[in-house]
Structures are given as C-alpha cells and as structure tokens.
Specification:
Layout: E1 2-6, H1 11-22, E2 27-31, H2 38-48, E3 53-56, H3 62-71, E4 74-79, H4 86-91, H5 93-113, E5 118-124, H6 148-166, E6 171-177, E7 179-181, H7 200-208, E8 215-218, E9 230-231, E10 233-235, H8 236-248, E11 253-259, E12 265-266, H9 267-278, E13 284-287, E14 296-297, H10 302-308, H11 316-329
Parallel strand pairs: 1-2, 1-4, 2-3, 4-5, 5-6, 6-11, 7-10, 8-13, 9-14
Antiparallel strand pairs: 9-12
Helix pairs in contact: 1-2, 1-8, 5-6, 7-11, 9-11
The structure holds nicotinamide-adenine-dinucleotide and uridine-5'-diphosphate-4-deoxy-4-fluoro-alpha-D-galactose (UFG).
Length: about 325
C-alpha cells in the first residue's frame, strides 16, 4: 500500500516524504515540477535511502491516473499540489482557479473512481482572513480572504466538505498551516523560491547570504508587541510530522486542524533571532504595510494535540538554524 503525494517535489512535500519514510510509509509522487526541481527528489532519496515512483504530470491530466493506479496500490492521498503565490494570484486569478480548483476536482474524481477515499488537504491560515480572535481556533469563522490564492484554499475546503457530506466513506483531513519555515536539518532540502522571495524567512536568509541588500519590514504601526507583524512560524519538519500523525489517526468524516506552534513572533523578533543564531547582521528598513497583510495571526494548536497527539517541538532558534544551514549550503537553491 502506498500514499499518493501530489506536489511531493515541493517545499513541504519533500519534507513530508522524509517523515513518511521514517514512519514506514511508501510514497508515490505526482508533480508537474512547475515550482520545483527533480534534484529535490534526488536529495530526499539521499536522506531516506528509499526509492520513490515519480510521475511528472499535472494533477488535471486524467490519463496519468490510469498509469499510477495500474502500477501502485494507493490507499490515501496527501494533496499538496497547488500554486501558492499570493501576489501572482492577484495578477492571474484564472490561472490559480484553473490550476488549484479544477486540478483538485479532477484529482478527487479520479481517486473516488478507484474507491480511494482518504485525503489530507493542504489548507492555510489565510482562510481566516483578518482573524475574529487570536489565538485562532478551528471554530474561528472564516474571514474576508484578500487573494485569489486564499480563495482557492477556502473553496477547495468547501468542495471537499460537501463531497464528504454526500459520501460517508470519505475520510477527509483539512490541515490549516500557519507559517512554515526552516529546512531539514541535513541542509539537503529546503525552501527554494523562484526569483525574489515574498516570504519573510527566505528573504532574511537571502539578505544574510548577500543576494539581497536589505530586508523591508512591512509596517511598524500594527497593534502588536513591537508594531511589526506577528505570525505563528512552524518548523517544516514539525509540519511534516503533523501529516504523518493525521494519516495514522484518519477517520471517516471531516477533521480540520490548525498546524502551528501557538506562539506569535514579530518580524523584528525574527530578525534578532536569526542574527543571534547565524552571527550575521541583517540590515533592514521599515516601510509601508503590505496590502492584504493582517497584524497578528497565531493559532491554538490544542485540537491537533488532543486528537492527533501532535505538537510542534522545534523552536524559533532551531527554525533559524536550519533555514540558515540550508541557505548557506545551497545559496542558489537547487539550481
Ligand atoms: P511548493 O510550490 O514548494 O510545492 C507545491 C508543489 O506542487 C510544487 O512542486 C509544484 O510543482 C506542484 N504543483 C503545482 N501545481 C501542480 C499541478 N497542477 N499538478 C502537479 N503538480 C503541481 O509549495 P509548498 O510551500 O510546498 O506548499 C504545499 C501546499 O501547501 C500548497 O498547496 C500550498 O498552497 C500549501 N500551503 C503552503 C504554505 C507555505 O507558506 N509554504 C502555507 C499554507 C499552505
Ligand atoms: N514581511 C516583511 N518583509 C518581507 C516579507 C514579509 O516584513 O520581506 C512580514 C509580513 O508583513 C508579515 C510577516 O513578515 O508580517 C510574514 O510574512 P510572510 O510573507 O512570510 O507570510 P504571510 O503570513 O504573509 O503568508 C504566508 C504565506 C501564505 C499563507 C500564510 C498562512 O505566504 O500563503 O502564510 O499560512 F497563506
């Protein structure tokens, strides 16, 4: 029996492959490499010593499923595949709706056709919009979502929930990630953004390695501890472990979990923590707030702890250490 991992060559996918292997699962990967490199999968093999069947194809390519199911015995799917740039989605919404929503619909149809009715879906804290309260629990209502990217996550959630209402055999886990950062401690796999990073940690590490001159801090007038934005950063390996625990505890019906640490860290605190760990100065300047950003976003991860027995164990220092180790060893990512 094997797990079909869509988007398995990506940042969170590769780290999850490692943890799945460690837990004794066999994975089969479906990825079109639109935002990843085949080298990432070679590195995963190096870490785990396992071999993986890899299908380079789009999740909307119906023909590929025939081949995958003929060649493998799939028991469940972890569905990471999707485009994830907030800014790109604002410029090209149709591309995002087509890729993420239509792709997910084809995937779910093809799985159901073969009676595979276990799925873990990668959702995001972005579905909460400007949170009604913090710490955010799973009961927090969804908010106004500012980007087409975020809307695809919310729409896919709704779609999957409706499907599960109609089919009681469906075991669906929706994982809402907070802010994944860091890298595998080997330094062999990590986050490899195209062009200039949008996200804080890869931006910091690229400043530290000399690829970018200075960090822009987007706003210091939020109602937060020091005025800069506060987020719940989670080590990508902890996040990957959350998928393994969810797989082990899967049950029929819908289960929704926040995956975060429950701690809020500000941009300025993160810069300081990174400087302390790396010994490298990170020059920055404060500029306007970034449109669409919320001031404060952190979760209560109590539900995942209680029901899955999962909690994040790696702290901000470890996140910075591993992000830096990856960036130092791979200044140009996988290229
Ligand atoms: P990533 O871009 O590194 O990985 C996504 C993978 O999916 C890539 O390898 C890409 O090539 C593949 N892919 C995209 N569209 C595809 C398609 N149509 N068919 C086949 N493969 C396709 O992103 P990631 O950071 O690893 O994120 C994984 C998932 O988690 C995504 O769904 C993302 O929206 C979600 N998520 C990420 C974050 C984050 O901050 N990284 C936060 C919340 C949710
Ligand atoms: N920030 C800066 N400078 C930068 C980049 C970010 O000051 O160059 C600040 C932001 O304003 C924010 C914090 O750092 O306060 C974190 O920003 P990120 O871009 O790293 O992360 P976001 O919380 O904006 O969004 C991320 C993903 C979304 C996902 C969300 C929740 O990009 O896709 O986490 O999971 F939906």
């Amino acid at each position: 029996m094997a797990i079909l991992v869509t988007g398995g060559a990506g940042y969170i996918g590769t780290h999850t492959l490692v943890e799945l292997s460690a837990a004794g699962y066999k994975s089969v990967i479906l990825d079109n490499l639109s935002n990843s490199s085949p080298l990432a999968l070679e590195r995963v093999k190096k870490i785990t010593g396992d071999d993986y069947k890899f299908y380079k194809a789009d999740i909307s390519d119906r023909a590929i499923y025939k081949k995958i199911f003929e060649e493998n015995d799939i028991e469940a799917c972890i569905h990471f595949a999707g485009l994830k740039s907030v800014s790109e989605s604002v410029s090209f919404p149709l591309y995002y709706f087509q890729n993420n929503i239509v792709g997910s619909l084809v995937l779910i149809e093809e799985l159901f056709k073969r009676n595979v009715k276990k799925m873990i879906f990668s959702s995001s804290a972005t579905v909460y919009g400007e949170p009604a309260f913090v710490p955010i629990t799973e009961r927090c209502p969804k908010g106004e979502i500012p980007s087409p990217y975020g809307k695809t996550k919310s729409m896919i959630e709704e779609m999957l929930i409706d499907i599960s209402k109609a089919d009681k055999e469906f075991a669906l886990v929706i994982l809402r990630y907070f802010n994944p950062i860091g890298a595998h401690e080997s330094g062999l796999i990590g986050e490899d953004p195209n062009e200039i990073p949008n996200n804080l940690m890869p931006y910091i590490t690229q400043v530290a390695v000399g690829k970018l001159p200075r960090l822009r801090v987007f706003g210091n007038d939020y109602k937060t501890k020091d005025g800069s934005g506060v987020r719940d950063y989670i080590h990508v390996t902890d996040l990957a472990d959350g998928h393994v625990m969810a797989l082990q505890k899967m049950k029929k019906g819908v289960s929704i979990y926040n995956l975060g640490t429950g701690n809020g860290t500000s941009v300025l605190e993160m810069v300081k923590a990174f400087e302390n760990v790396s010994g490298v100065n990170v020059p920055y300047y404060v500029t306007d707030r970034r449109p669409g950003d919320v001031g404060e976003c952190y979760c209560s991860a109590e539900k995942a702890k209680k029901e899955l027995g999962w909690r994040a164990v790696r702290d901000i220092q470890k996140m910075c250490e591993d992000a830096w180790n990856w960036q130092k060893n791979n200044p140009n990512g996988y290229s």
